[in-house]
DNA sequence: ACAAATCATCTAATTATTTAGATGATGTTA
DNA sequence: TAACATCATCTAAATAATTAGATGATTTGT
């Protein structure tokens, strides 16, 4: 009875990817420091490097030897990852309906008038592209 | 060294919640049948009821005794669950920026002109509400 | 040169999540 | 009534995810 893994990054993995999206390449030491400082996750050095190596084996990050340490970088773009998570949410909960999710977000999110205006523009642009 | 659980439903739990959102209350027998038919997850009866009871303990579902079986219903609304997952994604990846995620979705989603028109209306309504 | 710091590797442990068979109780059908 | 079907409970096991200390190697600082 196998427990299936997930195709998406786990919560800790997502935290680490975010750190690397913000700045990379980074050595483990720095990833560990930022996990503690930015994500309130104080982990031992070996906990962090273990997770990073698992992520490397999963194809989420690249690593490059630098002296005796490794520098890690994200291999997946932010959009690809969020697209995957959200796409999954779509197919599971919204029967694949993107617009239902987008509407749900717009209804629940706290958007100010500038953000709404920007969205309006984007939608107008999308609609225009569709007519061509 | 505890391994933290997640505050969100796991992938299987989300599949089960979807089934219950579509129709509830449901007995375990029916949940199991739909997992197999709709989610291509053929699990043993006891696997399903174990997961449902874990979900009950987590506060995700309600259950009511009916004869010798239990009927399960969702306790959380779809919006609350997706809002939680997406809110988490926001805070981890988009620094809390709802509009960035919504824009990301609009750009990547395959929306037809009717859907775009509906979004435009919703945004207009939101903008109007904000002026009051 | 020696001590301390840094680093990866190895090994181990905990917990969550998943999966399921055996068992006993209950209900239904022949 | 007996056999069968259905159901929850109990027990067990596999795997993923997480966490971390011990160890040896390398680098840095005194």
What does this structure look like?
Two copies of one chain form a homodimer. With 132 residues, chain A is mainly alpha-helical. The first copy, chain A, folds into two domains: 11-74, Arc Repressor Mutant, subunit A; 78-131, no CATH class. Helix content of chain A is 64%, strand content 11%. Chain A is built from six helices and three strands. Chain A has helices spanning 11-22, 28-39, 45-58, 78-93, 98-108, 113-131, and strands at 26-27, 61-66, 69-74. In chain A, strands 1-3-2 form a three-stranded antiparallel beta sheet. In chain A, strand 2 and strand 3 form a beta hairpin. The longest helix of chain A has 19 residues, at 113-131. The radius of gyration of chain A is 19 Å and the shape is elongated. At the A-B interface, helix 1, helix 4, helix 5 and helix 6 of A face helix 1, helix 4, helix 5 and helix 6 of B. The structure holds a DNA duplex (30 and 30 nucleotides).
Identify the CATH homologous superfamily of the largest domain in chain A. Answer: Winged helix-like DNA-binding domain superfamily/Winged helix DNA-binding domain
State the CATH topology of the largest domain in chain A: Arc Repressor Mutant, subunit A
Main β-sheet, spatial strand arrangement of chain A: 1-3-2
Radius of gyration of chain A: 19 Å
Q: Helix tally of chain A? A: 6
Strand element count of chain A: 3
- Give the integer mean of the pLDDT values of chain A: 89
Main CATH class of the largest domain in chain A:
Mainly Alpha
Largest interface: A-B, 47 and 47 residues
Query: Oligomeric status of the shown chains?
Result: homodimer
Binned, the helix content of chain A reads 55-70%
SSE pattern of chain A, N- to C-terminal: HEHHEEHHH
Beta-strand share of residues of chain A:
5-15%
Architecture per CATH nomenclature, i.e. the level-2 architecture of the largest domain in chain A: Orthogonal Bundle
First and last CA, distance of chain A = 52 Å
Shape of chain A: elongated
Number of domains of chain A: 2
Major β-sheet profile of chain A: 3 strands, antiparallel
- The low-confidence runs of chain A, each spanning 5 or more residues with pLDDT under 50, are none
- Coarse structural class of chain A: mainly alpha
């Amino acid at each position: 009875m196998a427990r299936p893994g997930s195709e998406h990054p786990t919560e800790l993995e997502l935290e680490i990817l975010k750190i690397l999206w913000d700045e990379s390449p980074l050595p483990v030491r720095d990833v560990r420091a930022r996990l503690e400082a930015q994500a309130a996750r104080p982990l031992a050095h070996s906990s962090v490097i273990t997770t990073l190596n698992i992520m490397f084996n999963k194809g989420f990050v690249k690593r490059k030897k630098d002296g005796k340490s490794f520098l890690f970088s994200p291999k997946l773009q932010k959009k690809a990852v969020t697209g995957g998570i959200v796409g999954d949410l779509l197919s599971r909960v919204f029967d694949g309906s993107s617009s239902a999710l987008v509407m749900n977000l717009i209804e629940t999110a706290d958007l100010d008038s500038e953000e709404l205006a920007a969205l309006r523009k984007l939608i107008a642009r999308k609609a225009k592209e569709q007519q061509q």
